[in-house]
Amino acid sequence: RSSDLAQPAPPPPPPAPLAGDAALREMLVGTWGHQTDDQVVKLALNADGTFGLSTNYKRGFKKVFDSEDRTSGKWQVKEGTVTFTPTASTEKNKVGQVYSYRIGSISAGEVIYTDAITGQRRIEWKLR
Fold this sequence. Notes:
This protein is mainly beta. The protein is built from 2 helices and 8 strands, in the order αβββαβββββ.
């Protein structure tokens, strides 16, 4: 009889969306990084809303004369966009600027976001 056959299990539901900016902010706290052919970038997002960013240059003019840049300031999440406002930097032109990145996806070890101005997409990996 067909009623005695076990029914296949339904497919698992899709992952639940983030529960708003608070959940996104919580997932972002930690140290993230990425690298290109020219630089290694590490970004520490602290739970108190402050950040520290270090950029180490691998080659070229910056490597010889100014091998590391440091920036610190405040960060926040609003409507799925993370915003950084530097308050101190070795690159004086960054102080007081606002940098915004739209979060495309995030997991425990990776975040993909898009620069709000340039539209450039970047992947960061969680270092700790």
